[in-house]
């Protein structure tokens, strides 16, 4: 059974087929695409009737030995890597790469490498886990705490003359008449939460899950300094008179006068990463100093620091844009991110499976929907907010 190649490998069609299979309503444009594809060849209708799961769709795809994989690569997969990988001719021995295109188009974005396939698990609705959402805890200078998960838009409180206003998942300071009294607040996002903050100087901060920022209610003096844990993306408001410093623990500081930077400083990650998108940054540790230009990334590990040119900016800020983005990530790397976003525990029973994952996937999926792309590569179950992975 072979689908018509003029339509069958169009990512839009593949995404539409997944929606149809999963029972989602099709838009008029998608319905027209489905009708045209079904009319293109009788085999297509037979194919649609035979496919009863995403796994079956992937398996059928793998059997299309005669597929024009070079066209598949050029249309769908290559554009995702064009900035990092020069174009090259793909011969038929590379046809498995097309499986990645299918998974990406389905929204399950996994390209994996493993010799044996594990059976897909059965996950009931009662054991599934919803994705993370907006929410944070604001700790004021006096120690009082405010839960921001369900706060409506509008005035939250006043503090030393400043108005703290919530608007669509972002806390901002309106301090035109604020006093010069300096107090320090802390915003913390638990696991399974993200939030945004506009600092008193107008700088904007995005906090990923399991992160925090400590900041003054008024920036005074010649420097603007905040302290962070976890992962944050910062758009620094320009100020030629005062630099902006981000303190990470006791031994690292990121300093800039303006620009956009992503800092991944989770303590359970083996490498601390500072990625610069705009502006100029200076990364300092007790041992060295690393100036960065846009597109570069400073990586710091126990072995020391290094600067990576031509960093993958999409990967660095994917979380801010509501996506997971993996490039040849091993299973523990993937699971650490899922654990933070879905607020689950990951348990390995036995040896950790060797696998490599590349792709993008939307963070709005439930945990079982997201893990569906892993169903053929690892043996897992979801039990009481735990992902249990078995050999």
Automatic annotation (TrEMBL):
The portions of this protein that span the membrane are: 94-112
Query: The Protein FecR C-terminal domain covers which part of the protein?
Result: 323-389
Q: Which UniProt keywords apply?
A: Membrane, Transmembrane, Transmembrane helix
- Does Transmembrane show up as a keyword for this record? yes
Residue limits of the FecR protein domain?
A: 186-281
Q: Molecular function terms in GO for this entry?
A: sigma factor antagonist activity
Per UniProt, what is one Pfam family of this protein? FecR_C
Q: Which InterPro entries match?
A: FecR, FecR_C, Ferrdict_sens_TM
This protein is called DUF4974 domain-containing protein
